[in-house]
Amino acid sequence: MAKLTFVGGLHPYDGKELSKDKPIRELLPGNELVYPLSQHIGAPARAAVKKGDRVLAGQKIADPGGIVSAPVHATVSGTVKALEPRRLVTGDSCMSIVVENDGLYEDAGFYPVAPLEKLTKEEIIGIIQEAGIVGMGGAGFPTHVKLSPKTPEKIRHVIANCAECEPYLTSDYRRMLEEPEKLVGGLRILLRLFEHATGILAVEDNKPDCIRVLRELTKGSGRISVKALKTKYPQGAERQLIYAVTGRKINFSMLPAAVGCIVNNVDTMVAVYRAVIEGRPLMERIVTVTGDAVAAPRNFRVRIGMSYEELLNGAGGFRVPPEKLVCGGPMMGFAMFGLDVPVTKTSTALLAFSHDEAAAEPGPCIGCGRCVEVCPGRVVPSRLAAAAQNGEEEVFLKLQGMECCECGCCSYICPAKRPLTQWIKSMRKLELAKRNAAHSSKAN
Questions:
Q1: 2: burial class by Cβ within 10 Å (0-12, 13-18, 19+)?
Q2: Which residues contact 24 (CB under 8 A, 6 or more apart)?
Q3: Are residue 256 and residue 125 in the same domain, yes or no?
Q4: pLDDT per position as a tens digit, 366-396
Q5: Overall pTM > 0.85
Q6: Which residue segment(s) compose the domain that 168 sits in?
Q7: How many distinct structural domains can be found in the chain?
Q8: C-alpha 142: how far from chain center
């Protein structure tokens, strides 16, 4: 039987052996936690506390700033120390709520609204919204918005993205092995919202133990299936995942709902389960700390707001001085300038490498075509990068530059070490900003 996959992609060294066999371990934060008000796509949240206020774990400390927004909750008990701009992993500053941890971890009390079978669809979505759940695979799109398509009756597939195709990341892998009931429970909750849909747990076939556990757990379920995907990067990218498991195609301007699909990450599904069944808002996530420069790579359960420096210390610090730090995966993550930045809802990993392989001086394009062979968006990255470098917007759009998913395959495979993805990404950002400005102008 042909394996479920897509055209293009590649097989980088995955580095997962460093941390995949390390069970999830809870790591408690230090004295100070920082909660940025923008941990999601959309309008920043609005602070609901002031300096000097005492807060409890699970208490809402910021309200959503609009429909496409999400509240923020304290993850420890303590005192609000400041409301001020703080640095994020991207290097940007963001207004943040700073809380001094009192070490007591008193919580606000967690109680489910009602048994699941008594909740209406609207109540389930309301609980998810109030819990502050966003896409935890890195995108940060508010989950309640994703679960509210214009025509919910047309949704045919609710897909749990269990691929975890980024090299080095193993947090989803550990979740699937250690808490599969919560993952499947979260999927079952979402299926209550879409009565014509089936659930799909889409897992790369380099995780046979996860496939076995999930199939055993869903045996006899008429609405949920486990599908094994060919192990290939970027198998977990939304467009590629949807095509692999359903054969349906979307472009950059379409949402998955346009082809009858809803896609959520493993951690997001678990957060949905905990919000609806346990009454707990989004307060924690699993983060992988790994790389050849890390003394003891591990997977941690951490509270949102704690610092990356605390993550590193929990993994024994550096084994050797690193040349490069990365937030997220090595293909699509951000290079970090330091560790004094907070863990947010979208943090997936901290990677530390003894050698920076991306530091090579780029050479001229030799016209080899390798970037075209691996591109899952089926565009010509070398030509798009040239158009972006020269500021040729019309050429860039004519060459379908907006179809780039910024996966990094072209930069990885380029023998001349040209940062093709970065050049294309810059032009895409300019074009998207232009379109957003035009949309806002029309709305006003």
A1: exposed
A2: 174, 175, 178, 286, 299, 300, 301
A3: yes
A4: 999 999 999 999 999 999 999 999 999 999 9
A5: yes
A6: 116-278
A7: 2
A8: 12
